[in-house]
């Protein structure tokens, strides 16, 4: 291969790598948000229901519960802190099991009726655990 061909191949590879880096960094930035961008600190809530699932995902874990509203079941999707932060607070991916009764305090979404940011979760035995809310940095 001639030196000029090597240089062109190298420049082409570097151009593709640069474009990929920009695209990947944009995806991460779009996925993460501040508390104030999505949730309303002036609209606190408390919801009691049954655990449907705990999703141990980044950048935030999610807790889905089924609660009753006006005699009808509704599904709530609560954003928790990141898994690493939850682990520092004593959580594991098995901390909550499907069917457990919990009470969650947190804040409503600004735009979605059954999406919220969880601040604390009260477990079936009455213990309250910090949910890693991006609203604050300590247990309430």
Condensed summary:
The protein has 140 residues and is an alpha+beta fold. It has three helices and six strands; from the N terminus they run ααβββαβββ. The protein folds into two domains: 1-31; 35-130, Nucleic acid-binding proteins (OB fold (Dihydrolipoamide Acetyltransferase, E2P)), CATH 2.40.50.
Write the topology of this structure.
Elements: H1 3-31, H2 35-38, E1 39-55, E2 62-69, E3 72-79, H3 83-88, E4 101-109, E5 115-122, E6 128-130
Parallel strand pairs: 3-5
Antiparallel strand pairs: 1-2, 1-4, 2-3, 4-5, 5-6
Helix content: 25-40%
Provide the CATH architecture of the largest domain: Beta Barrel
CATH-defined superfamily of the largest domain: Nucleic acid-binding proteins
Percent of residues in β-strands:
35-45%
**What is the spatial order of strands in the main beta sheet?**
1-2-3-5-4
CATH topology of the largest domain: OB fold (Dihydrolipoamide Acetyltransferase, E2P)
The CATH class label of the largest domain is Mainly Beta
What is the 3D form? Answer: globular
Radius of gyration from CA coordinates: 21 Å
Helix and strand composition category? alpha+beta
Count up the domains. Answer: 2
